[in-house]
Amino acid sequence: MPVFMLDVRPAGAPTSESTLRRVEAGVPTLDVRDLGPARGDGVFETIGVVGGHPQALDAHLKRLAHSAALLDLPEPNEEQWRHAITEAAASLPTDRQGGLKIVLTRGIEGSGQPTGWIVASPAEGDFAERETGIRVVTLDRGYTSDVAQRAPWLLPGAKTLSYAVNMAALREARRRGASDVIFVTSDGYVMEAPTSTVILRFGDRIVTPRTDIGILPGTSQLSVFKFAADRGLGTEEALVPTSDLLRADALWLVSSVRLATPITHVDDTEVSVDRELTRAMNEALLAREN
Ligand code: PLP
């Protein structure tokens, strides 16, 4: 699992040479005073790698910059990250899928110098869930659908390092005999999963929850919408009442490494699975250049 530290440069600074330093996994690398590990004060992206190439790079860089802006972090140097991500992706085996976790933190308190690193991981397993599907439970996220307007300091829509709640929700799902979660607002709308976006099909319409209810804009969801539009399906970002989960003709969780995983059960109720569309969706996601 190659690990790279990034010599973070300000936005706009030239970065013609490599700014990555490869470190041996397991060798202490990070200052314990760094506000990333100390307070979860930073942002990240997880990027899928296929054949040694990063997928949806533009969309990930755009979201990284958006998250950084929401946290008042210095603007990431797009060119530097683009080079670094491409270089780190090329360190992975080309015969299987992989992923990169790229991290930008506020750095050591008072230093004004952000910290950056990239962890490159070959994917484990064969993603059997893309065929077999998964059981999910719905869990109240504790926010109303107007949280982003009412309490923007909660950072809804930013991909911050503070994922302890998301991980706790996944453990709760396992306790309930499921493997994933669909978060819902306390006023009854579908949000997202702890590490993926929810997609629904109603007839020839593909729907995803609106991001202004306080969820992340998904890069995989964007690709799924492009795929759907190319097939002549309608696409829509909507306010999705929780009851729609049992009305839909098919449901998926989508994310950058796992890609499209069909949902077979919601809170123990069996839901219909569209195997043909799932396969076509995953083929399109795997074939993405950007
Ligand atoms: N929502 C959350 C909370 C996530 O953490 C993620 C990905 O990690 C997603 C959605 C899906 O985003 P993407 O498709 O860009 O991987």
Short description:
By secondary structure, the chain is an alpha+beta fold. The chain has eight helices and 14 strands.
Characterization of the model:
The protein is α+β, with helices and mostly antiparallel strands. It folds into two domains: 3-122, 2-Layer Sandwich (D-amino Acid Aminotransferase, Chain A, domain 1); 129-287, D-amino Acid Aminotransferase, subunit A, domain 2 (D-amino Acid Aminotransferase, Chain A, domain 2, Alpha-Beta Barrel). It is 26% helix and 27% strand. It is built from eight helices and 14 strands. The longest helix has 14 residues, at 57-70. The radius of gyration is 19 Å and the shape is globular. The model has no long low-confidence stretch (mean pLDDT 96). The structure holds pyridoxal-5'-phosphate.
Secondary structure blueprint with pairings:
Elements: E1 3-6, E2 20-23, H1 35-39, E3 42-50, E4 53-54, H2 57-70, H3 78-89, E5 98-105, E6 115-122, H4 129-132, E7 134-140, H5 147-150, H6 164-175, E8 180-184, E9 197-202, E10 205-209, H7 219-230, E11 234-238, E12 250-255, E13 259-266, E14 269-270, H8 275-286
Parallel strand pairs: 7-8, 7-13, 10-11
Antiparallel strand pairs: 1-2, 1-6, 3-4, 3-5, 5-6, 9-10, 9-12, 12-13, 13-14
Bound molecules: pyridoxal-5'-phosphate.
Pyridoxal-5'-phosphate (PLP) is lined by residues 46, 192, 194-197, 216, 218-221, 254-256.
Supply the CATH class of the largest domain: Alpha Beta
Quaternary status? single chain
What small molecules accompany the polymer chains? pyridoxal-5'-phosphate
Mean pLDDT: 96
Helix content: 25-40%
Report the major sheet: 8 strands, mixed
Uncertain residue ranges: none
Return the CATH topology of the largest domain: D-amino Acid Aminotransferase, Chain A, domain 2
Count of DSSP helices? 8
* CATH hierarchy: architecture of the largest domain: Alpha-Beta Barrel
